[in-house]
Amino acid sequence: MVFTHPLARGAKVWSANLVGGETKRILVVVTSAELDPSNRKYKPEHIDRLTEAARDYLKETGAAEGFLFANRMRDWEKPQI
Description:
Elements: E1 8-17, E2 23-31, H1 44-61, E3 66-71
Parallel strand pairs: 2-3
Antiparallel strand pairs: 1-2
């Protein structure tokens, strides 16, 4: 079963290697929704809906132990040097 949601542009379960050699599986969800609460475009209801969908997916599938959201790289601001 694949994670899908209208606000998700893609999602995949990745293995994270922790200090001490432990490995955890994490659902990484790429979204175009604004993730910075200080940004005027941030909409908490969008993040709440996406969070609820991710939790439900993990509960149903057991595919991972947690999740994180990330914006598409092309949406990242260029660093000011």
